[in-house]
Every structure is written in C-alpha cells, then in structure tokens.
Amino acid sequence: MKAFVYVGIGKSAVEDRPKPEIQAPGDAIVKMVKTTICGTDLHILKGDLATCAPGRILGHEGVGVIDSVGAGVTSFHSGDRVLISCISSCGKCDYCRRGMYSHCSTGGWILGNEIDGTQAEFVRTPHADTSLYPIPAGADEDALVMLSDILPTGFECGVLNGKVSPGSSVAIVGSGPVGLAALLTAQFYSPAQIIMVDLDDNRLAVARKFGATETVNSKDGKAAEVVMRLTGGRGVDAAIEAVGVAATFQLCQDIVAPGGVLANVGVHGQKVELHMERLWSQNISITTRLVDTVSTPMLLKTVQSKKIDPTRLITHRFKLSQIQEAYATFASAAETKALKVIIEA
Amino acid sequence: MKAFVYVGIGKSAVEDRPKPEIQAPGDAIVKMVKTTICGTDLHILKGDLATCAPGRILGHEGVGVIDSVGAGVTSFHSGDRVLISCISSCGKCDYCRRGMYSHCSTGGWILGNEIDGTQAEFVRTPHADTSLYPIPAGADEDALVMLSDILPTGFECGVLNGKVSPGSSVAIVGSGPVGLAALLTAQFYSPAQIIMVDLDDNRLAVARKFGATETVNSKDGKAAEVVMRLTGGRGVDAAIEAVGVAATFQLCQDIVAPGGVLANVGVHGQKVELHMERLWSQNISITTRLVDTVSTPMLLKTVQSKKIDPTRLITHRFKLSQIQEAYATFASAAETKALKVIIEA
Amino acid sequence: MKAFVYVGIGKSAVEDRPKPEIQAPGDAIVKMVKTTICGTDLHILKGDLATCAPGRILGHEGVGVIDSVGAGVTSFHSGDRVLISCISSCGKCDYCRRGMYSHCSTGGWILGNEIDGTQAEFVRTPHADTSLYPIPAGADEDALVMLSDILPTGFECGVLNGKVSPGSSVAIVGSGPVGLAALLTAQFYSPAQIIMVDLDDNRLAVARKFGATETVNSKDGKAAEVVMRLTGGRGVDAAIEAVGVAATFQLCQDIVAPGGVLANVGVHGQKVELHMERLWSQNISITTRLVDTVSTPMLLKTVQSKKIDPTRLITHRFKLSQIQEAYATFASAAETKALKVIIEA
Amino acid sequence: MKAFVYVGIGKSAVEDRPKPEIQAPGDAIVKMVKTTICGTDLHILKGDLATCAPGRILGHEGVGVIDSVGAGVTSFHSGDRVLISCISSCGKCDYCRRGMYSHCSTGGWILGNEIDGTQAEFVRTPHADTSLYPIPAGADEDALVMLSDILPTGFECGVLNGKVSPGSSVAIVGSGPVGLAALLTAQFYSPAQIIMVDLDDNRLAVARKFGATETVNSKDGKAAEVVMRLTGGRGVDAAIEAVGVAATFQLCQDIVAPGGVLANVGVHGQKVELHMERLWSQNISITTRLVDTVSTPMLLKTVQSKKIDPTRLITHRFKLSQIQEAYATFASAAETKALKVIIEA
Taking CB atoms and an 8 Å cutoff, what residues of chain B touch C70? Predict the structure, then answer.
C-alpha cells in the first residue's frame, strides 16, 4: 500500500509498504477514507520528536472503514465506518479508568509516532474497542476528521482546563488551527469575551469570523497592555496558550486575572520562566495536558446537533497521491492561508 | 498602648502608641488576648515587603475581645470574644462574593502590613462582620490562634488546592510551621502516603510524630529520586511546595505524577524555571494562592470536634512585654526548635 | 405613595401608604422605576402563602434609583440606578458565606412577602450592599427587571442544578415564564436537545422561537412516551420541572435517564409520590432550590455581552396606575398570551 | 462442583453443577477462595427480585484465583489472585466510559442475579479485565472480600453521594452492614458528627465502637427530634438512608438541613412520599445509586495503607459446605449479631 513515511530529519517519502496485520486480540485494521496533517507531523519531520524513529508512517487523525478485527474486539465489525482517535486507550489501566487516556500504560499518543499511522491506505489501530468511534449515519465525515485530534485538543486542553463559563473573559494566544479549535469550542459555554492574539492578520480575520469578540496583533509587543485595557484592567479569567514558546507563555502570565487559569495547549520545546514572585499570591492555576480525547463522544453530539461546524477549519483538499503537496501547503500556512487540509484516499 | 513596630530594615521596637479608633462603620476595635508571629513578619523586618512601610505595627493573627464597634457592625458587640482572621474581607465585592477574600477590593492581607496589626494591646479590624469569628464557648484559644493564618494557609493553599483525597499520595516539601499545618490538615482526607521533605532532621522528626508516613532529608540532593522510589516510580498526586525558593519548586516539578497537582504555598521572592518542555504533556496543574480564610468556619468545626489539635504547633509562650525575645526565638528556629509561639497580653 | 396591597384572600387594592424609611444601618430606600409581577404574587393573592400577611405591599422584582441609604451602606449612594434582587442577603451569615442567599438568616425571600415589596413608588431594601446591583451604563433596564427573579430562578434551579452541558439532552416540563427562562439560559451550555413540554400550544410555539429543539403537548397523557422516543429510549440527562404539581413531577421521574438529574423549579403545594422502587438503582439526583440569585453578576455579564436577550420574555407594558389591569392580564395568560409584564412608575 | 442455588421462593439448595466454561473472549473462570452473603441474596430467596430466576447460583462477592481466561483478556493469567467486583463492567460502553459501571450495557449487577454467581467452587466472570482486581502481595483477603460490594456501596452511594466533608454533620439511618460500611468510610473525610440511627441497640453499640459520635434508637418515633437537637436545630448536611423503607426515607427528609443531601443507599420495594410542599425551597439533593465499584482501586489503597480495617465487619466464618448454616446465621442477625460472614472454599 501507499504510505507517507518520515525518512529522516527534513526528509519524507511516499513509499510502498505491506498492508498492516492484526498483532493483538484488541487490534483492528482500518482502510483509510480521509486523513489530515497536524502541526506535530511537521515537528516530527524537523526531527523534534525523539519518540518517532525514521521509517515511521505518519498521521494520527482520520476516518475509515473497518477491514478486519482481532479476536478480542467486540464493538466493531468489518465494514463499519469509524472515527480514529489520535489517542489509543486500553480502557483498563489506572490512567484510562480515570479518563486520562493520554497516559494509557499501553497506549496514549502512539499512532504515527511510536507505531505506524494513518497517512496510508490502511492502518493498524490497537485497543480498537476504546480508540475508535462509530460514525453515525449521515454524519459529515470531513467534520469528523477534525474530531480525531484538533477539536478535542482545543476543547480539553484549552476550554475545559480553562474553565470557560458563561459571562467569563477568555484570551486565546495563537490563532492557528488549535487556537481556532479552542475558539470554536469555547463558545459552547457563552463567555462574554474571547480575545484572540496572533501575529498574522489573516488568522485574526478568520478568528473574527469564527466568533472572536476582539483580536489583537501582538507584533508591536503591546498585547498584554491591550488585553488588560479590553478587560477593564482585570485580566482574563482564562488565558489559553496555543503556541508553545516562551514569549506567548509569558504573555499569558501577564494577562491572567487573579483567580484565573492559564491553560496551556502549545507543545513546548524549551523551559520557560514562571514569575512566582508575582503569581504566588494571585490564586491562579496553570494547567498542562496532552489531549485525552475523553470528550470525543460529547463532541460528536455537538457536531450531530449542529452546535458547532468543524468543517470551517478545512481550507484545502488533496488526494493521498498528492500528500507531498498537501504537506507543502500546510507547512506554508502564512502564504497559503491553510488551516486544516483533508487528504482523501 | 504597647505595640511591636517595624522601624526600618532590620529594626523593630516596642513603642507606645495611641489606642486605635473606629474609622469606618464596619470597623471594630479589639483588645488583644493572644497573638503569634508569622514567617512573613520576619520577611517584613528584612525589608522584603514593599507594601509594609516603616512605622507599621506588625501582626495579623490572634484572638481578642471586642472593645467597640462601628455603626454598621451587626454581628459583634462589646465583650464578645473573637478570632481575628489574617485576611480582611468586605463580603461585598466581586472577589469576596466568589470566596476569594484574599483579593477583596478593600481588604485582603492588610493587617500588620498596610494598616496596623495585632502585636499590640489593641487593634482596629476593618470589615469586622466578615473578618472576625465568634469564639465558641469552651474553645481552646491557643488552638484558635492557629486558625488566624497558619492552619487555613496550609489547608487552602496546600491541601484543598492539592486535591488531597483518600488513598492518594502527597509530598510536602518544607516541614516548617506551614508545611506542618498542611500535614495536619491533609489527614482530614486520609491519603495513603504523606512524605515530608526538609533539610532539618528535627523538623522531620516532628513531622513523623504529626502523621507523616515517610520523611526525606533533602540535604544530599537526592530527594526526587527517593520520592519516586517511595511512590513506585509514579510520583505523587499532590506535591505541596511550602518553602518558596527555586530549588524546592524544582523538586516539586520533578516528583508530581501525571494528572497530579503542584500546590504552591511558599512565598516566592524570585522567578523560577518551569520545565514546560517536559510538563506540557503531563496533565498537571500548578496552583498558587494567598490564603482566603474561607475555610475558617469549617476549620473551627474540626477543632471543636477534635478532628485536629492545632496546639501541637505551639512550642513556646511569651508575654507581650517579651515580644522581642519571642521574635528572637522564632527567628532562630533551627536552634530553638520553635514552630509557633504564643504571645499573651 | 401609591402601592399595590394584598388585602386578603382574593382581594387586592392600590392604596396610599407612607414612604418607607431607613430602619437599619444596612437599609436603602429605592425609588422604583420598573417592576413586574411574578407567579408567586398570584399565589399570595389566593392565600397560598402563610408567610405573607394581609396588608402587605407585594412585589420582589424591579429596577430603581437609590433615594437614601443607612449608615452602614458603603456600595451605593443616592441617585445610583440599581437592580433589586428578589432575595435579600446579609452576606455575613453561614448560609450567605456558602452562596445560599435564599436561606440568609436575616433575609432570603422577604420582599413583598414578610416585608413590603416593590410594587409601589418606593421600597425599603434591607442588606442593600449585598442585595442590590449597580446598573451598568447603557444597560437595557427592561432586560434587567428579568434578572431580579425569573432569569436566575430558571438558571440556578433548572440549568445549574440540572448540570446542563454541551451535547446533553434536556427536557423542560412547563413552558411558562420560568420554564422559558430555563430554556433561554440552558442555551448558555449548548445542549444537543431541549424538549419543551406544556399543555398550551401557544407557549410551545413561543418555546420553539426561543430555541427549543422539540416540543411536546402533554394533553394526551403520552408525553413520557414521546420524550423517550425523542431520546432514543434513553431519557434525558436533565428533566427540569417548572410547574409544581404531582403530574409534572411524575413525568420528570419517567423521563430522566440513568445518571441524570431531576431539577425541580416549580413551587409545590402538595407532597408527591417518588418511585424509589424503580429509581433507587438509577443513579439519579433530584434537586430542589429556592433561587439564591448568586448568579446575578454572571447573568448581568451575559446580558451586557448579548449572549441572551431577556426582553423576549416581556409581552405587555403598564403604568403603575394600571397595575390592577396588569394583574388581570398576567393572571389570564392562556387568553392574553402574557409572559412577563413591565410596570413602569 | 458444589454451588449454592436459589431453587424458588423461600427455597435454596447446595447442588452439584458442572464447572463453568469460557463463553466470550473477555471471560475468566475463577476458582473461589472466599465469598460472603449480601442482604440482597436474602431478598432473592424471598422472591423479591424478578431478574433472578430459579436455578441461579447466588453470590456476587469474593476473592479467588484465576483458573483460565478468554482470548481477549490481557490483564490476568492463570494463577493470579483476584478480587471479584459485584459489578461487571465492559469498560467500553457509554456508561462505563462515564464511570457508571452499574449501568454497563452488557454488565452491571449480573453476577448471582442474571448469571451464575460466586457461592460455588468456580465462577465465570465476564469482562474480566475491567471487573476483577489484582490482589496486592500480602493483602488480607478477608478485608478484600468486603471490597466486592459492601464497602464501595456504603462509600459511593452514601459517603460520596452525601458529599461528606471535614467538619460536616452526617446521620446514617440504618446500622446494618451497609450502614456500618458507610460509617467506616465516612471517616475518610473527618466529619464533625456521625449520628447512627437504628432500632437495634446491639448494632448501635457496634456503631459507637466503629466511630459514631452519637447513636439514636428510633424505636420511640422521636429520632427526628433527637437528631435536630443534636445538630442545634439545623439538621444534618448528609442524611444517608441505609434501610430502604418508607419510614426511614421519611426520617431522612425530616433531618436533612437546607443545602444538604439525602443519599439513598437502601434497596426500596415500594414507592415513598416526598414532601415537596416543604422541600421545594430547601436547596437539597436526593441521590440514588446502584454501586458502580468505580472506587475499588481507591478503596484498595486505603486498606493497604491501613486507613480503614474492613475486617471489623466480619463476625462469623464458615466453610462452603456449611453455607446453609451461614445463611441461617446471617438471616437471623438480630439474634446472632451477624454483620458479614466469610465463607471459605
């Protein structure tokens, strides 16, 4: 089968690979229908992730059709259409029991990282019963691809951890796909203010269309000042960090109100400074989280009942045969204005 | 009246001062019966707190008897015995309504800091109705002095924020008075393990008497290793920082389990490093808090029902006339083995 | 001054009364600008409320202007425009500290019940600092009249107690003003389904305009069946009872899903049957609540940020001189299609 | 193999049955080591449970050794010592994902009810990976038998649902095994008062030994009065119903304080009266629950760390060959003073 492979730092290739096979009783083999590219995939290609070895088929998102299942799988059968979660969860270990699938002792984020992923014609998914979701009849499968990772990530790490609530004030620092996913899902809770911060005016324009009440271009280094002014000097109840660098983490520290939450979503490669000399008495929380995808059933209901339209995140479409072009488009988002791309089998 | 006054950096004096007077309708004048000294008082004497100007009468803890009240005070009358909270709370502002008395718009920690405090024969307490608590008949007033600050601080900032729960594992880094207050109140929730970490073997011995299940002297720089071993490699569900320096904050980062809480209690004078490159995916919370004393009514009930004995924290007793000696004893805790001292009128 | 007075069972009158005076340091005298009529006022007129004696000026809702304040009032001054909460809260007692203003030891629902109310030219409001709310500049005062009682009642007793959440299913039994207030505020949380049940087709038509996803006329006795069918046989996550009689309480028991909440809002005059022989194993909660109005500051923010438009509940307008006509209109809602009426000074 | 069988209303027998066999990939066959008898088993023998057909092997509690496992079982192997949960949980369905194992779509309370149970030499346990728990080395297996049902039932349905907290007041109505299990586990949270109510003075004496702060014999019909007096007229924060009849449910309604919880544990056979005409405004919750055993891992930790000693509930011991005698003893608790009995293979 065709598969998109991380060959080595800065190198990728579409390769012919054997179709994957059932290895454990809980496995399923899924024929891919649609997949997408994540910012993390770009990190892998740059060599930033030690867990992902050269030779790996990338991709941890998508929808597909069950090809075959192992002896222990009871919820799915050949021919079932399924949503693939980016997180594999055994449903049995202590972490899974507590809803912390991201730290599953035999799962977590392994697809397209520690084992082969979804940017291929077929994928093997471990713990299928608790890592795949049946696709409701009539569902928009493009929308569901957004439920593999981007939407639960923005929602769980940003909105739920940030305790966004009716009438509250929220700032989301970073208006890329995951920041926009937080913006869309924050609106489930009717906050009074959602201030989006970014360096790219196009992305801020998108944010306004997606429901931001105010936008701030942080280019001039005065974003903290502006957010404080927009909140009457109090700061925000939830400062959602959706970039992953020291400067944006600092900005979030500067704008979080007493009693508020700094909810980190961004993937950080470096340590940051934490101003405990000021924050120790501010009654704040700082939260971190690798998405657990524990909210997937709930997000499915919000999509099915049209409370949210995740297809608004989709800007480009490609065939699997065009995946190198898809990567190029996604990697040059500033020029292409790409958010999420759909890659069809 | 006699009062203990911060004169300037490194200088204090017992001075004669006029008896305070009612300034606002919500004020009470309280004749002090017992007070104590807090670690923060030592910080003030060193000049560490910009908010506290020379000339200030120190002290934010104690019990006393109502001398007189302003026109708006409805809950207290002359002659009532009261517990003085270290936090003044108006009960009306947005923060007070949310239970965040520490950030009261006209209160917070002002006693012995922005206004004159309790280490004197009399003190003026603003917002008396919502900042004083009636002393139940027959209560042990020594125990109640511990409820002004040290017990709610350890409990709210450490135990409540740390979500200590039955069967959980806790490490408390710092076995001084506030760490021990966290240790005593953590036992309300029956955790399976409470590991105390300190540099001082005497304090660790006290901790064992107070209910620590294990103690670790961190002198050799291997505390993180030991805590990880004691928790089967998982780390602790709650890492309570009760010192306030970079090294102990770092230790807490090293030992908090995925899904756990780093609950900061210590007063920090410097920024710290936060290892987001490792923690971003660990599903942890870091919490900060200036005590709100919102738990005071509940703590009173636990003292009255003998679920806790806060007098175990009291090591020395002085008269107000001996307050300089009391400070000397408290400041040399390593030698004197002082925890909390009682200063009687 | 002119005042609407409960004279005795079935009897009311507009009477001339002396302007009220400050009686306690926490009191304010408010010149009424707008008020409204509550279903509870009709109950009083029928003689259903033993707490309300003949001679009482009715009314517990409205906005006005501060005329004068007692010596202990610090937040308001003569000339301030204020929203009057239906609940008087001292902010000091144990219940108020816990946010349960409805059970304030010297307050609760006393206005227009145990003391004279707001359907008059002036009203005395006890505990003014913690029972009145400043009206933001430019606010729509009609909207704010809905925040005295109806909106927080639907929200706190129905939506908050019912734990309405994104993607969940809700049934609201009773599509009168308070049911509709629950319907409007339930949408803060983006549930997938809100099924409204009533006997009156007009009110169900209103409900659809206000955001109900489905409506059920329960006239034929088959409402439970229909709700079960609409929820795929599972029942609803939240069954909100907004009537207060045995039949509607029974219906809620029949449609609440395992793990769900039966949130009672209705005022009951009789005991009901509870089918514990079936419900004991269903993991449900039944909640009751007299509105605390603890959510008023938050509701104000949602109104100011246009997340909700409470003026949609207003169907009729009268002058205070026409208050008997206003009562007649409100009491004949089936014919007049009245929901909430505004009565202007 | 020998097995204790429900033969028909009022009739039971020890019968010879074939050893059970693996039927599904998730099954395990467990050789029983110890089991016990539950009050529900007595109900079955009386014919009260329509779900349990004659011919059924009873028993849903116990510890044993894995004999064999199905192809899908990954956590257990032949020879492993295991605790058997009374609730079978697939870990995959919507209810299991939400921690509501009691309503598992293919499990729940089926052992010794809808399928053959543990009062036999062997038992087949479905969903073994998520319904059995490994027994830690050195654990007291008698104690663990109490973790199959009685302890999680008292804890989850009574203590957790009742929101027992430090300093709070609790009444437990019913001092049988499950009421005593609630009493033992309530102490995890250090309430100020635990008042036990029963008709049997022996059981009240046991309750005092187990930590009750006060006991009330309700024989004279004045229990409500006494509880109100013991709580200063306020009532209790948590009223835990551990009997399951109308009179005790009524008593709980009479003693629950405003803002409190009536946590039902008892199995009810009849509807009850609910005094909504009084309770509608009392801000209470009434909760029901079939035990989910979601707390089993946590309870295991509290037993291993000696925060609780569940063997205090064990009064008698029998061999499996004496099971009829065990039933007779357990059924005549008033005379035999039996609480829980251990039945060894």
Answer: 72
